[in-house]
Amino acid sequence: MAFRDQTIDSFLTELSSKAPIPGGGGASALAGALSAALTHMVAALTVGKPKYADVEEEMQSLLTQTEVLTNRFLALMDEDAEAFEPLAQAYRLPKDTDADKAEKARVMEAALKSAVQPPIQIMETCALAVPLIALCAEKGSVVAVSDAGVAASLCRAALEGASLNVLINTQGMQDKAYAESLNRRAHELLALYGAETEKIYREVSARLSK
User: Fold this and answer.
1) CB of 25 within 8 A of CB of 118?
2) What ranges in the chain are assigned the alpha helix state H?
3) Nearest to 66 by CA among 130, 2, 161
4) Domains in the chain, start-ordered, CATH in brackets?
5) Is the pLDDT of residue 96 over 80?
6) Which of 67, 88, 89, 144 could bond 42 through an S-S bridge, CB–CB 3.0 to 4.6 Å?
7) How far apart are CA 201 and CA 187, in angstroms?
8) Are residues 104 and 95 in contact, defined by beta-carbon separation less than 8 angstroms?
9) What sign results for the dihedral spanned by CA atoms 156, 161, 164, 169?
10) pLDDT tens digits, 26-81
11) Which residue in 27, 31, 71, 18 sits closest to 165, CA to CA?
């Protein structure tokens, strides 16, 4: 069963168990989905209101974009689990002989390169979401500005969580040049969009503190 088809209680039960999946990657993708859904909600509360007629077109477009992003994050929950399974199996391979060790190293390298893809994609998807959150925070209905702030916080959590999942996978790679390129990209995304989400949160908090 896809994670998106589970009840919240069922997912949390699996997440809190000893099972290797779902884990931090899936939780990060879920945070991204929650962020995108909240952004969609802010836009939905804005469209059709005479007070916001000048941003109607932007908000209508945002509704479509955030629906796509929500679904993408949900898909990444399953993609992360599917990519991790071969890695979990690779860890259990024998290493009694030199041949065993060589085979395990080969399989591990391929599994690590596969497992790192969903978290990088979670971060890339967060990068697409941040401008939409900023737009909602700036131009969306004032009655939902706090929700835009929560969306920013959740997006930051998704970014940070996914970045850790990138780093733990690249750490064991033999291809250091490839690992470094992924690390560099993760750090770039976290620095840029993490700062943006923090800015949105602080601006929303300041507006609500007046």
Assistant:
1) yes
2) 8-15, 24-44, 56-91, 98-115, 117-139, 145-170, 176-208
3) 130
4) 21-83+107-206 (1.20.120.680)
5) no
6) 144
7) 20
8) yes
9) negative
10) 999 999 999 999 999 999 999 999 999 999 999 999 999 999 999 999 999 999 99
11) 27
- Largest alpha-carbon pair distance within the chain? 74
Report how far residue 195's alpha carbon sits from residue 210's, in angstroms, rounded to the nearest whole number: 23
How far apart are the C-alpha atoms of 203 and 197, rounded to whole Å?
10
Which of 127-166 are b and which e, b meaning 16 or more Cβ less than 10 Å from the residue's Cβ? bebbebbbbbbebbbeebbbbbbbbbbbbbbbbbbbbebb
- Geometric angle at alpha carbon 30, from 196 and 178, rounded to 5°: 70
The answer to whether residues 116 and 124 touch, using CB atoms and an 8 Å cutoff, is: no
How would residue 165 be classed by pLDDT, with cut points 50, 70 and 90? very high
Tokens of 34: 């929650």
Q: How far apart are CA 116 and CA 191, in angstroms?
A: 19
- Give percent of the chain with pLDDT exceeding 90: 86
Distance CA 149, CA 199 (A): 10
The pLDDT of residue 85: 87
pLDDT of 100 over the 90 cut: no
**What is d(CA 41, CA 146) in angstroms, rounded to the nearest whole number?**
12
Could you tell me if 82 and 26 are in contact, meaning their C-beta atoms sit under 8 angstroms apart? no
Average model confidence (pLDDT) across the chain: 95
